[in-house]
């Protein structure tokens, strides 16, 4: 039942900088974190760094470019 109430967070641009630090802090507090990045290689490298810190139980990687699908809408 505890799993049903576990908190989750999705962090964009998380392979470095503020996003990476947010992932680290949330996961260290027991929150389930989806670390996302637009570049799969950089994202998986960031995931590896957090796993080295012992946070692997609380972090998964998902590829996400927030600009995908943001092209200008068609004009009618
Ligand atoms: N650092 C500060 O003190 C500070 C203060 C106030 C506000 N901010 C703002 O907070 C934001 C993050 O700052 P930061 O210092 O952490 O910057 P950063 O180190 O440059 O990191 C930016 C992150 O966003 C990712 N990103 C850029 N475009 C993306 C897209 N289309 N889809 C997915 N991810 C994308 C980058 O991925 P790639 O590695 O693939 O480029 C990188 O992971 C910025 O908007 C910045 O202006 C920063």
Automatic annotation (TrEMBL):
<dbReference type="InterPro" id="IPR036291">
    <property type="entry name" value="NAD(P)-bd_dom_sf"/>
</dbReference>
<keyword id="KW-0560">Oxidoreductase</keyword>
<dbReference type="InterPro" id="IPR002347">
    <property type="entry name" value="SDR_fam"/>
</dbReference>
<protein>
    <recommendedName>
        <fullName>(+)-neomenthol dehydrogenase-like</fullName>
    </recommendedName>
</protein>
<dbReference type="Pfam" id="PF00106">
    <property type="entry name" value="adh_short"/>
</dbReference>
<comment type="similarity">
    <text>Belongs to the short-chain dehydrogenases/reductases (SDR) family.</text>
</comment>
<keyword id="KW-0521">NADP</keyword>
């Amino acid at each position: 039942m505890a799993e049903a109430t576990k908190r989750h967070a999705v962090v964009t641009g998380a392979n470095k900088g503020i996003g990476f630090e947010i992932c680290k802090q949330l996961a260290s507090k027991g929150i389930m974190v989806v670390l996302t990045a637009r570049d799969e290689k950089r994202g998986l490298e960031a995931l590896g760094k957090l796993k080295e810190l012992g946070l692997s139980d609380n972090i998964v990687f998902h590829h996400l470019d927030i600009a995908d699908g943001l092209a200008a809408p068609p004009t009618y």
